[in-house]
Amino acid sequence: MTKLVKPTESELDILSILWEKEYAMVKEVHEIILKNKKIGYTTTLKLMQIMNEKGLVGRDIQSKKHIYTPLINKEKLQALYLSKMIQTLFGGSSTELVLQALEKYPPNEKDIASIVSMLKQRQHK
User: pTM for this structure?
Assistant: First the structure.
């Protein structure tokens, strides 16, 4: 894929399921989505077909059941969204982003230890 297509919110929901499961049929994806959203099966199917056309997911049509897999790397997409968000919402300041995130979503002790460890490593570079 030469140009990264930004997924919509609904497409991100589907991608997160596929990233976790690695592959799935529409029915499986739809059942998971139904836990949080009221959406019709045909809507899920159509979204996944569109995602296939966009190059966000691949579809194995060898068997009767079409199996979908993510074609976009989760970390690459996270980096793209994060970069855009830092630039537009936080004036290019990763510090502002981190402070806002920590304020809104306080870390547990394990997360704090990981953060401190990462900061110490950065300090020694």
Answer: 0.77
